[in-house]
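Example record for the data management plan.
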Amino acid sequence: MLTRLYVAFVLLVVTAATAYPNRFLQKTTRQDAVLPNIFGDAPLRTNAKRFAAGLPPLPPNRLYSPPASRSGPHVARQSASSPVNGKLAVRDSNGNPVFVAYIASQNSATWNPDHGVTVYPLPDVPQTWSLESQVEPSEHLQDGNGNYAKVSIAGDINGGQTKIWNIDATTGRLSVTWQNNDDGTTFSTSDFYLWFPTGSDPSQNGGFIVTGDIEETIAMLPPGWSAQTEPLGIYIDPL
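Corresponding structural encoding:
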């Protein structure tokens, strides 16, 4: 009797395997597979349970996520940590050189993390670059706003900021981080715009301003002044 029952059980198993081979042979590789019904419907949260179900182990946990790179035009990708000496240069967005008489008159320049940018116009009298706000103290620089500040020589103006310059360690491109006095927020950019007396040659008579919206800036410039809309980069190239 027992022999007959055993034979019948074996035949039943063989018949089921033949009729439904996928249920016996198919193996999933999905990482989010769930336990078979005999274990319940909870997801496989541990490797032990996954091994018991014939599944691969879970992927290792990511212990470190690198920060998103800041490769936009507003800040240096990686600012240098020691002084940089060289020759000032101006380039457009395509990397082509742009002649600006004010820059060409500088014999050399030095960027220092503690002092900012020092230029040496002939006959080599050191001058420190500063940014001078051109707006009321209650206003500040920010993206999408026409308020602006001009590059000046420290000592010639009041309220200018000098220790705000950074330099890209790879390209030598200068950038500024302006601090707003009203709320302590900052505005960073490496885009500079030529402004000049209306009707004059920008390359001969132009200076540099920074702004968060050049179109709005042009609309609010004082009478007799104009500005170009193309952003330019200022660089310190090795001598």
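Summary line stored alongside the record: The chain has six helices and twelve strands.
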